[in-house]
Amino acid sequence: MKKMFWAEAEIRDNHCISPDIYAMKIIAPDAAKNAKSGQFIMVYLDKGELLLPRPISIYDANDDEIEIIYQVVGKGTKALSQMQPQQEIKILAPLGNGFTIAPDTKKAALVGGGIGTPPLYYLAKTLAQAKISADIYLGFRTTPILAEEFRALNNGEVHIALENGTDDNAHKGFITDLIASQNYDQIFSCGPEPMLRALAALTARTSTPTQVSMEQRMACGIGTCVGCVIKAGAQYTRVCCEGPVFDAKEVFPQ
Amino acid sequence: MIDTTVSIAGITLKSPIVTASGTFGSGQEYAQFNDLSRLGAITVKGVSHEPWLGNPPPRIAETHGGILNAVGLQNPGAKAFIEKDLPFLRTLDTKVIVNLCGRTVEDYVAVARDFEGVEGVHFFELNISCPNVKAGGMAMGTDPKMAEEVTRAVKRATATPLIVKLSPNVTDITLIAKAAEAGGADALCLINTLLGMKIDIHKKKPILGNKIGGLSGPAIKPVAVRMVYQVSKVTTLPIIGTGGAATWEDAIEFIMAGATAVSVGTANFTNPRVVTDILDGLVAYMQNQKIKNLSQIKGIIE
Ligand SMILES: Cc1cc2nc3c(=O)[nH]c(=O)nc-3n(C[C@H](O)[C@H](O)[C@H](O)COP(=O)(O)OP(=O)(O)OC[C@H]3O[C@@H](n4cnc5c(N)ncnc54)[C@H](O)[C@@H]3O)c2cc1C
Ligand SMILES: Cc1cc2nc3c(=O)[nH]c(=O)nc-3n(C[C@H](O)[C@H](O)[C@H](O)COP(=O)(O)O)c2cc1C
Ligand code: FES
Predict the structure, then answer these.
(1) How far apart are CA A191 and CA A189, in angstroms?
(2) Model pTM?
(3) Chain A residues within 8 A (CB-CB) of chain B?
(4) CB of B59 closer than 6 A to ligand 2?
(5) ipTM surpassing 0.90, yes or no?
(6) B57:A225 CB<8 A
(7) What is the per-residue pLDDT across A76-89, written as a single tens digit (0 to 9) for each?
């Protein structure tokens, strides 16, 4: 079984990076050293009536810290956004399978939608280090996030699409409009389900191997409750341990 | 010296802290955070004769101080459980309770028979109370006649000590407890989850794919304590108290209400080390209060 770490960790930083979106750095050396792109952590809130930990993807990891980027959407993420540096936070990490880079991949595309963008950053970094070129495609409703961080990796083109935006440098429409999937050996994606579904249909036509990161409501995060399933073929499969990253063909059969 | 052991159907448990079915897998995942050999027993997730697909997602919804689940007893069947999960459980120095589920009396008998000659199972726990399975689990746990019949049928089919796990979704739980006793139960476990529902008012639909689910966690603890108390007054069978236990104080409360052991479910999700924390707290309490044996406080509420 994979090694995971239960830690009472210290928050190093927690600040707003865009309306309702926060970046939190957590000091957790064991978890950080073992983290892989596409994996997630469970964040325990210690908030009495909010019993369940919140699953949040790993945005970045280095020797002693894990960074997450999260959107405030409800009571749990609200509570998280109010936590201060030096406060303790309980986490369980790293969890899930993560992205798998095929040995013969020379050129990859990373496709992110909205708050599905952050989990791709650590992958983009890993690809850059491995000298595998990666074009980045990011779609947002109105306001992009993290575009500069991806550009700074300088390892491929960075494309932005806005559904209702007014940026001249951005495509107006869906990010999937921009992708010529035949140009890539592998495509990795995280974002809202309709986007993943559209991407899966697109890449199926060119038979481009595609991995998608899925979401589901979770309780345990480690495979014991069988609560976090999605349909994969005729079976229900657990997002927290068989995923969150799946072969697109498995979850969006064409 | 304090003595944390308790006895159920002639079998000694090292401590009164047990894990609840469906919340602890088969223990392996939690072995990274807890010394499982300190537990009285591990109750594994529900096992059926044939594999069960389970309910459509979402299966989990958080409520105030509780959670709703509608897993629908997804499991790979007894054969896969015996091959994949039991070998690990056999390596542990603790007792193993196998939770059995079925849709008919024959199903329950079939799954009990699947374990014939299989080593490493100390108790069966008959889940006649799962609220999620449309076809019959519900009816058995809420009808005294059916409860007695299924208990008797499984009791005849196996020599393994039998715990019957009761549903709280009844008007008078003491009637079902007495029926299980009449059917030959060696012990009782109560309570299973309470039927509940949560609606997403923005999407105007229930959160759970199954619409309704079972409520567990601290929100249900007062109901569970009350039911343990009532049942302990009408039977001499040992009771495993379940429902919302999350602290050592909760465990003591169940024991004072009449429980011999306490099983911990949902709290494992809130804190993966919770069973260890509860055990440590319990031992400290016994030392401070100079309680040598838990029988001194068991069922002390008149
Ligand atoms: C593997 C995985 C990775 C994720 N990574 C990120 C990330 O990097 N950044 C980010 O902002 N969000 C991420 N999410 C979504 C995030 O978990 C939810 O937004 C968060 O749990 C909402 O909690 P809340 O208390 O604010 O909302 P509430 O709606 O009040 O939460 C109620 C319950 O529903 C659950 N829930 C609500 N929405 C979701 C959802 N979309 N997915 C899963 N459970 C949900 C909560 O965990 C909680 O149990 C991820 C989800 C998963 C499954
Ligand atoms: C996700 C989940 C799965 C469960 N699965 C089972 C099961 O397979 N068999 C069973 O008898 N009870 C099952 N239960 C009920 C628990 O064992 C326990 O009786 C109930 O949750 C109340 O205790 P708690 O509040 O400590 O969780 C399940 C509960 C949860 C939350
Ligand atoms: S969250 Fe419990 S099995 Fe995935």
Answers:
(1) 7
(2) 0.96
(3) 1, 3-4, 6, 44, 48-53, 90, 92, 216-231, 235-236
(4) no
(5) yes
(6) no
(7) 999 999 999 999 99
